[in-house]
Amino acid sequence: ITFRQGTQARLRPDESFDVAVVPFVLDLFSDDTLRATFLPRLRTTLAPDATLLVADFGPPATYRHRLLLWLMYR
């Protein structure tokens, strides 16, 4: 196992990963940036049978959840 930390810009085309973990970062990018830059760059380094594990916030269901999410972003 090799752990890598950094942005998609540090990924090299000659690298290949079996698993990529993307925790709580997709909401930081616009849809256009995700489609044009982030995901294509990530895809080039994933092995054909690779696993992409995404963890992100869902839409808040209650007022309390909205407040907590607002606090986390601040």
Outline:
With about 70 residues, the protein is an alpha+beta fold.
How would you sum up this structure, described in words?
- The chain has 74 residues and is α+β, with helices and mostly antiparallel strands.
- 35% of the residues lie in helices and 23% in strands.
- The protein is built from 2 helices and 2 strands.
- The protein has a two-stranded parallel ribbon.
- The chain is elongated, with a radius of gyration of 15 Å.
- The chain starts with 16 loop residues before the first strand and ends with a helix.
* Count of separate DSSP helical elements: 2
Share of helix, binned: 25-40%
* Arithmetic mean pLDDT: 88
Low-confidence segments:
none
Which word captures the global form? elongated
**Could you tell me the strand content as a percent range?**
15-25%
Indicate the structural class.
alpha+beta
Order the strands across the largest sheet as they lie in space: 1-2
Major β-sheet annotation? 2 strands, parallel
Instruction: Summarize the helix and strand pattern as letters.
Output: EHEH
List descriptors.
single chain; 74 residues; alpha+beta; two-stranded parallel ribbon; 2 strands; elongated
